[in-house]
Amino acid sequence: MPSIDIPVDTLILPGLNGSPEGHWQRHWARDNPGSRVVEQSDWACPDRQAWLSELEQQVAMTTGDLFLVGHSLGCVLAAHFAESRLASRIRGALLVAPCDLDTTETLHPCIIRFGAMPRRRLPFPSLVVGSLDDPYMPTDQLRRTARAWGSDLVDIGNAGHINIASGFGRWTAGYDFLELLKLRGERDPFAANRDGRLFTAAVAGMGLALN
């Protein structure tokens, strides 16, 4: 039987040091045939222009509109990509545990050449999923970042950096958040969240299953 090429509709953007095996982003790529991880040549010492160029190349290689699924520094990459000539191809972005650049630079020895934290409103729908005890993004900074990006914002409680270390392997609840984002064009479940107010996962009606 001939193989069937499934169009890519979702690009997955890992953060600093990439997303190792067992990370929910890697599970996501395997569980969703239309997803592709955007691999970078240097995960340890990220350079904004190099990462942006790779993302632009991946977007250019696909047909149709795309969703972005970022984690940590991958969220910041998505926010910088908003100024790309290809940004009109993005239907929406799920941004999980975005990191604050100043905080991240103090926690890692390698130089992070990512410039200033992007503050411009994103030209596509976006949903930020954050944690109340994320070492890479204080809650007050999370609120300000989501407000600046024009993103809907949900916290899922004390969940660390929403990565393997904090117990997030095959995070199936994340799929639900992406579906919620996709429904935004039909109905806006976060219509009231235009001033960056924090919604809990319970308010959003989402599950917190970690398996």
TrEMBL record:
InterPro entries recorded: AB_hydrolase_fold, RBBP9/YdeN
Alphabetized GO MF terms: hydrolase activity
Keywords: Hydrolase
Name listed for the protein in its UniProt record: Alpha/beta hydrolase
